[in-house]
From TrEMBL:
This is Diaminopimelate decarboxylase. PANTHER family: DIAMINOPIMELATE DECARBOXYLASE (PTHR43727), GROUP IV DECARBOXYLASE (PTHR43727:SF2). InterPro entries: Ala_racemase/Decarboxylase_C, DAP_deCOOHase_LysA, De-COase2_C, De-COase2_N, Orn/DAP/Arg_de-COase, PLP-binding_barrel. Gene3D superfamilies: Alanine racemase, Lyase, Ornithine Decarboxylase, Chain A, domain 1. The gene is lysA. The modification N6-(pyridoxal phosphate)lysine is found at residue 60.
Amino acid sequence: MDHFPYRDRDLYCEGIPAFELAERFGTPLYVYSTAALVGRLEELHTAFAELNPLVCYSVKANSNLGLLKLMAGHGSGFDVVSGGELHRVLRAGGDPGRTVFAGVGKTDDEIRDALRLGVMLFNVESEAELEAIDAVAKAEGVKAPIALRVNPDVDPKTHRYISTGKKESKFGMDIDRALRAAESVRGREGLAMTGLHMHIGSQITSTEPYARAAAKAAELIDRLRGMGHDLRWCNMGGGFGIDYRGGESKPIASFAEVMVPRLKPTGCRLAMEPGRSIAGNAGILLSRVIFTKQSGDKRFVIQDAAMNDLIRPALYEGFHRIWPARVPEGVPSWPDDFEAAIPGTEPRDVVGPVCESGDFLARDRHLPPLHRGDLLATFSAGAYGMVMASNYNTRPRAAEVLVDGENARLVRRRETIDDLIGPELVGLEG
Ligand SMILES: *Cc1c(COP(=O)(O)O)cnc(C)c1O
């Protein structure tokens, strides 16, 4: 959390105290660090330099236009999974020619738009999709650049909801199927197979699945070239894990270490689609304690960020470090182990105001004494946080702020109730 340090027991984002941001912009508030975002992007560029990489930042991890603009400005391409995300890339000044388009259910309209905009690659997930892209491309009088999404059948040993590279996944095709599909591509004049795509899952903390996937990719590239396909891109997807607890992830360089030697002989350029590993630890969620409460033996901290703001704990048991933005005396200002019984703390459930028992950010978490109005920080919230936020319980979504040094810029204003009910007013007419 280099860019979210504690100084004199006060949490900062880069050069600005968290309490100042909360006062200025209100809570719940997502806060992102420019230096963290750009730093991770550069780390990827450096680690994979030998493969002349194109980082296609995975828009679904955090699609805020301010972040996308920042990424584009630092040379990032993009990975999109819908026409809507592609539109965001354009609005942020991103280059469609450096954008890859994935997703198991692309519609003809989305395919046509993407073709007209000139996306770099369609990551194709099924035979039916090949047919659809071929038909649309022929009607447009162009050749669609495609990469087959292949499941290398490696087990990334991550949460089952975010594992995608196994045989029984809804994504991509197994290797035999992909080879048959590649045969059929040769006869289709609307398609040009210029790449290969794999994405084996998310929050992968071991390098071994990548070593195996890269080896399979290299072998497959040979075979596809043997069929006459002119492969120039090897797209290894995203999925690099980050520290949520502290110390569980590997540095980007160690993933590069196992992938580069296996992919280098192919001569392909490397495309990659990191999302979480860029945005995850570049963001925190600030919230304020509304009430504290005790029921039986259980103690609750009820604060103003809820499952509708950050659903990862409820959806896939995601763990987030949570700590006061101003740490009282007598407790460490940054504990080594957030799951331990830290001296001066008591176990509490950190919950929101939403009417669901599943509305929690943490359970049985050791926290120092907290009071109404205290500010809490939920860490590692930059990826799969705001993008999954909803308006459940008619809760306006949080504001988002992008910090750069001592400068904080609102990149999404807090929603109003009118924003929420506006689309329904049509039903009140007449
Ligand atoms: C979700 C996704 C990614 C990004 O995954 P991260 O774990 O956030 O890096 C990349 N590619 C595809 C196809 C995805 O679905």
